[in-house]
């Protein structure tokens, strides 16, 4: 089955509500009223037809941005997937058409708008990472005070005053002290 996508223009009928579903998901909901007009040739003017009402839901970052950007009464354009819903309450059957919004914007035929880009969150260093770095820096200071260095190739902690070259019999002396 293919999703039906529509673009509608209407005025927001209520204040947006935003719900936090869990720590990573939020949804904003609002209604829009779309006034359908047609040209009446004999009277040479537009005539209002039936008003269509839609529920609009938007998710994630779009939900946050919509809640911060739109208010009741404002003209908007909504593009998204159409979803028909029906339910019963107290023995009475209800139906509603919901548009799951993919894009929302002000209708600039009726006013102006300004855009503010939202900065993405910069990852904050985790406390354990800062703690690990602080411990490593403290250990480096203590090694330096004790006259020790870390061999960059092997990671071994060695005395800082080791000669650059070891005597030829150094490995023989080491192998005598290490059990086989």
Automatic annotation (TrEMBL):
<dbReference type="InterPro" id="IPR012340">
    <property type="entry name" value="NA-bd_OB-fold"/>
</dbReference>
<dbReference type="InterPro" id="IPR011344">
    <property type="entry name" value="ssDNA-bd"/>
</dbReference>
<keyword id="KW-0238">DNA-binding</keyword>
<dbReference type="GO" id="GO:0003677">
    <property type="term" value="F:DNA binding"/>
</dbReference>
<dbReference type="InterPro" id="IPR000424">
    <property type="entry name" value="Primosome_PriB/ssb"/>
</dbReference>
<dbReference type="Pfam" id="PF00436">
    <property type="entry name" value="SSB"/>
</dbReference>
<protein>
    <recommendedName>
        <fullName>Single-stranded DNA-binding protein</fullName>
    </recommendedName>
</protein>
